[in-house]
Amino acid sequence: MPTTGIVALERSGLPRACPPNGPTSRPRSAERRGTEHRGGRGAETLPGSPSLKRHARLKLATAHCTPRPKLGPRIEPVTKPPAKCKTKEDVRAEIDRIDQSLLALFAERHRYVTRMAQIKTDPHEAYDKARIEAIIVRQRERAEDMGLDEDQAELIWRTLIDWNVNYEKGIIAARRRDD
């Protein structure tokens, strides 16, 4: 079966035109998160829901012209080791620095998840139980090696993976409908 739509255009190497409003045409921030508040239009949207699907289509359509964020260093240098922090403000400043680095890493990871969704052709491909369980085992081992609670690490990774699986399914399903 020949490849059509966005995938075919990407493989052709030909540039796509940006939308009329330019690369800043984006859904409201609540829709980007996949949630709506106060029972408004699209209330209680979840990954794979219409709100997220609209977002996925928009991301696919504008990915070529959306400026990439500056990645910078993944983790900023430690300005104060924990033992040197004397006040709550010192500790909070270091936590804020780490949170910023985590967010940059999540954004980088999300770009790879989006690319994976562009490569996959069937929504069922988004869920690979064997791979997920291998990731969980590996993260639990790494957490233990670092002196972290393995159950907490597992919870964080399962939450991240579940969201990514639903996000991929939404993108793949939206692309299949459009093709």
Automatic annotation (TrEMBL):
Occurrences of domain Chorismate mutase (ranges): 82-172
GO biological process: chorismate metabolic process; salicylic acid biosynthetic process
Ranges for region Disordered: 1-53
Pfam families given in the database record: CM_2
Basic and acidic residues bias spans: 28-41
Protein EC: 5.4.99.5
Gene Ontology MF, one: chorismate mutase activity
Keywords from the named record: Isomerase
Group of enzyme by EC: isomerase
Domain of life: Bacteria
Statement: the UniProt record of this protein carries the keyword Isomerase: yes
Identification of the protein by name: chorismate mutase
